[in-house]
Amino acid sequence: MCMDKIKKNYIRLPMIGSGDIIDYKNISLISRFISEQGKILSRETNNLNLKQQRYLTIAIKKARILSLLMFKNK
């Protein structure tokens, strides 16, 4: 069996709904897309499109700078 054809099993999180606003103040939404170590999860894991992932990354970075989120989880 070829290793190139085997896909990795990712944890699929629910997509962002139409009523959800991606904003740095919406901590409950943002925290779903951060790993236990505090890293931003990839697009494939999040099941988001490129535009949503960009907005999410910007919102997470703003929330970290304003001390709403931690940079690392211990």
From TrEMBL:
Keyword annotations of the record: Chloroplast, Plastid, Ribonucleoprotein, Ribosomal protein, RNA-binding, rRNA-binding
Location(s), subcellular: Plastid, Chloroplast
Query: What Pfam families is this protein classified in?
Result: Ribosomal_S18
Q: Where's it mainly located?
A: plastid
Family per UniProt? Answer: Belongs to the bacterial ribosomal protein bS18 family.
Q: Which GO terms describe its molecular function?
A: small ribosomal subunit rRNA binding; structural constituent of ribosome
| Cross-referenced NCBIfam families | S18
Instruction: State how it assembles.
Output: Part of the 30S ribosomal subunit.
PANTHER family per UniProt: 30S RIBOSOMAL PROTEIN S18, SMALL RIBOSOMAL SUBUNIT PROTEIN BS18M
What name has this protein been given in UniProt?
Small ribosomal subunit protein bS18c
Q: Which Gene3D superfamilies does the entry mention? A: Ribosomal protein S18
GO term, biological process aspect, one: translation
Taken from the UniProt entry, a GO cellular component term is:
chloroplast
Query: InterPro entries, alphabetically?
Result: Ribosomal_bS18, Ribosomal_bS18_sf
